[in-house]
Amino acid sequence: MLGECVLGGVDFADPDFEAAASRLQRAHAKRAFDILVSVFGLVFLAPFFALISILIFIDHPGPVLFCQRRTGYDGVPFVIYKFRSMRVLEDGPNVLAAERDDTRTTSLGHFLRRSSIDELPQLLNVLKGEMSLVGPRPHAVVHDEYYAHRIPGYQLRFKAKPGITGLAQISGFRGGAAHDGHMIDRVAHDTKYIRNWSFVLDIQILFRTMVVVPFDSAAY
User: What is the pLDDT at residue 114?
Assistant: First the structure.
């Protein structure tokens, strides 16, 4: 159900929303582009991934990858991959969101998170079809359950595959959500992306991601 509410200027009673979401999921060019870029990226970045893996282990011995359940397309959970940047590997019913100057973050982890390098292993998720290069950023399952009961229309963001980057991220809505208003703005941008998706829009978001997202002050 779309519901009858307006969130952050986005009208969720729009009868065209479901049609737009369906069109996005049938976009073969988007999936082909995801596969092409993820394969090329994984091959090209393999030596860099190996170096980062060694540095992570030297900085704080433990798993190189951080794996956590996130909510994917149509509300189906999947396991996301990230370079480990913290001393903890939280998943399940108790997941504490990262905070600025978080004491759980490793020395190298601060750099990985600020530069967004920790997100690069998600190219594996893209190749597997669990994510797309561009789409709503996925949250921990427990956080989605929390916001679904607090923000009308929150679950509409699951009408698209989650992305490594998205319209919300290039629009200044990344990092922690200090209050519900921050998450409302993100959901508004996520649904705006779904309604207005085009291949050109994806290219624009990817280009702006490379320009504005690395070392964004909102990343921590």
Answer: 87
For residue 27, give every residue at least 6 positions away whose Cβ sits within 8 Å of its Cβ, in sequence order, or none. Answer: 197, 199
Q: Take residue 90 and report the two structure tokens written for it.
A: 């939280």
Q: Are 119 and 163 in contact (CB under 8 A)?
A: no
Give Cα separations from 41 to 35, 52, 66, 136 (angstroms). 10, 15, 19, 21
Q: Where are the alpha helices (DSSP H) in the chain?
A: 17-25, 28-44, 46-59, 107-115, 122-128, 141-148, 167-170, 180-196, 199-212
Question: What residue has token string 């949250």?
Answer: 139
Whether 7 maps to a domain, the answer reads no
Q: What residues contact residue 15 under an 8 Å CB cut-off, 6+ apart?
A: 2
Look at 30-39, 140-149, 199-208 and tell me which has the smallest mean pLDDT: 140-149
Task: Please give the tally of structural domains in the chain.
Answer: 1
Whether residue 144 has pLDDT greater than 70:
yes
Which range, of 11-20, 177-186, 207-216, averages the lowest pLDDT?
11-20
pLDDT tops 70 at residue 43: yes
How far is CA 85 from each of CA 52, 99, 135, rounded to the nearest angstrom?
Answer: 11, 13, 23
State which amino acid sits at residue 218: A
Q: Does any domain span residue 88?
A: yes
Q: Strand, coil or helix: what is 119?
A: helix
Domain range enclosing 105: 17-212
pTM for the structure as a whole: 0.86
Q: Is position 195 within any domain?
A: yes
